Amino acid sequence: MMQKIFFGYLMVITQLSVAQSLAPLPVASQSATQTVDSGSVNRYRNADYLQAQIGLANGDDISLYSHLVNDPLYPYLAAQFYQKNLERDSEILPLFRRFYAVPAIKKLHNRWIVKQYNLGNYRAVVDNYFYTGNEEADCAYRAAQLSLGNRQAALAHIYGAWMSPKSISKTCDPVFEVWGKVNDPAYRVKRARMAYHKGNANFAGMLVERLPFENAQRATLQRFVGYLNLPESMLTADVASLTDSTLARDLLPTALAALVRKDSSQYAAFATQFAPILSADPRYQTMLGKLTQYLVKRQDPQAVTTYRLMTAPSSRTTEALLTYLVGMHDWRGIIEAVGKHSKSPMALYWLARAREASGQDAESIYRKAAAYRSYYGFLAADRLGQSYQFTPKITQPEAGIQRQFDQNAALVRAKRLARYGEAVAARREILPVAKPMLLPRKRQLAYWLNHNGFHFEAIYILGKMRDWDDIAVRFPMPYDTQVQAASALTGTDAMWIYAILRQESSMDPNAVSRARAKGLMQLIPSTARHMASNLGLSLSGDAIFDPSINTQLGANYLAKMYERFGNIALASAAYNAGPGRVDEWVLRNTDDMTIWVETIPFDETRKYVKHILEYQQVYAHRLGKSIPSVSDYLNGRAQAVH
After folding, report:
1. Contacts by 168-172 with C-beta closer than 8 Å and gap 24+?
2. How many Å apart are CA 377 and CA 354, to the nearest integer?
3. Closest to 76 (Cα-Cα) out of 416, 517, 508
4. CA–CA distance, 247 with 230 (Å, rounded to integer)
5. CA-angle at 580, arms to 576 and 585, nearest 5°
6. N or C: less crowded end of the chain, CB within 10 Å?
7. Cβ atoms within 10 A of the Cβ of 449, count?
8. 36-80, pLDDT tens digit by residue?
């Protein structure tokens, strides 16, 4: 199997140039080829990719589009056709040899391999299989090798295939049985623990049932699988029995995590009683972090107690606790929770505020916070009367590497797919290209993607790298004409519109959310229609995805929210969570808007508002504009709509 994998890898490496010489693909068999009248010949010969897609969907034979065989997107047409014609082996197999790296062909390959195995064509499976990461196809290959008597090939790297926290395709069962280790109690216990910790209680229980009755760990595993299925049943257990063995102490934190998810306030005391025994356990510490966050959401003061039990709280847990302490104006609690050597700008800012409120020196802490390009860094700079620090580190393109990207087959396909509006398929081509790269080359790829209009993917790749400083790539401006036009039409500040675009869609005009919000500014269709009516615009078909229309409608909605609430933070919160919720939230004290933002009940909206106020300043910096400070906007001293 590994020979096959290595062969596939070598082929991927060699398939970098679009201009390479390739053997021609066979033409579809004459018997399968449709007969067309002479008047239609030119229509087929002149068909482009989209027309071919439509024709194939309507039943055309692939042979009618043979003139597209050297088009970079031909493998997508071929995959579309042969998914429904898996019996045409002589035409399918050359596709595997030529287009093995194309996601659509990998999917076709997986289906074909499984079908051939089910037909008993084991030699065809073995001769034409290449690794794609698909479990069903991998099992079919292994089982085919076993059926042909190739036991060693079938069992290659079998431990990694079997040691999974979830059930594996039954096609692999004969291979696992030959392996023998499948019935080894130590292996079963290890896999059951893995499934248990992943929350797959039913599968873990099935594995435990197959352990010998005399196995010493069987009863403990069965008991804890029961706790995972019904966490409240732990409450009636003998407390000592929950930690009476190494295995029990390993399993308990996961069961406790399930318990506190049920009701954090009610079960916090039960979960925290084990801290003296389990404080060094990483899973127990993770549970304490989650419990703290749950309690914060419920405004439960037990959050402070659970936080103090943590040996090394994550920044996320610390920041969650801070939202609670800030809302309570618990300055002493903030000072106790946050060390002055923290690297979190949020923690540093609120530590400085707490010290200031307590009559202690805060300037040095503010200075540390102000060094960050962030919402909190900007607030700290405002307290000091300093200018903002943007600290950009702009990637300089290396011509040779950029040329390689221009010729990379996957990236060429991605550009063509994007041109035809197939953004998701383009993304599936791009991300595997980035995955194996070292960081410097990934930065070059992010530059290339940004330069070629793949702003979402460029931002995503830098985010996965935790590279926050290339603000030219992270804060692109591809729609400046549309943003300025929308600003002029509605009076909405252009930097605010830019910030919304960046936060909502990362500049992807085709973005569609799970809530069916659409386009650059992620507009719900009903809202978009209402705004279009206000502006006298037509909104039919896919017009909502048009950048010009989308930005005008979104900017108009921002202006409406600003007119209603009179503050950029409130209006931004309304854009994200809806004006009805903000009507409820403003009933709380808004005298100090930094505290009001910190106490927004929804995590998403709280982060959203902070990002908007931060991004607004970054875009102003990028465009060389001078705009009011974050504090001026927050406190209503600056207008966001004119």
Report:
1. 168/135, 168/139, 169/135, 169/136, 169/139, 171/114, 171/117, 171/136, 171/139, 171/140, 171/143, 172/138, 172/139, 172/142, 172/143
2. 16
3. 416
4. 19
5. 85
6. C
7. 26
8. 555 555 667 778 999 999 999 999 999 999 999 999 999 999 999
Average pLDDT over residues 399-426: 96
- The CATH topology of domain 480-634 is Lysozyme (1.10.530)
Q: Where are the domains of the chain?
A: 53-179, 254-313, 399-468, 480-634
Phi, psi of 423 (to 5 degrees): -65, -40
Determine whether 504 is an active site residue. Answer: yes
- What average pLDDT does this structure show over 179-205? 94
pLDDT of 185 over the 60 cut: yes
Question: Hey, what long-range contacts does 26-31 have (CB within 8 A, 24 or more apart)?
Answer: 26/90, 26/91, 26/94, 27/63, 27/66, 28/61, 28/62, 28/63, 28/66, 28/88, 28/91, 29/88, 29/90, 29/91
What phi and psi values does residue 523 have, to the nearest 5 degrees?
A: -95, 130
The CA-atom distances, in angstroms, between 56 and each of 63, 79, 80 are 10, 11, 8
Which of 457, 504, 598, 614 is an active site residue? 504
- Looking at residue 543, what DSSP letter applies? G
Residue the block writes with tokens 């933070």: 569
pLDDT single digits (tens) 287-330: 999 999 999 999 999 999 999 999 999 999 999 999 999 999 99
- The SS3 call for residue 523 is strand
**Integer distance in angstroms from the first to the last C-alpha of the chain?**
66
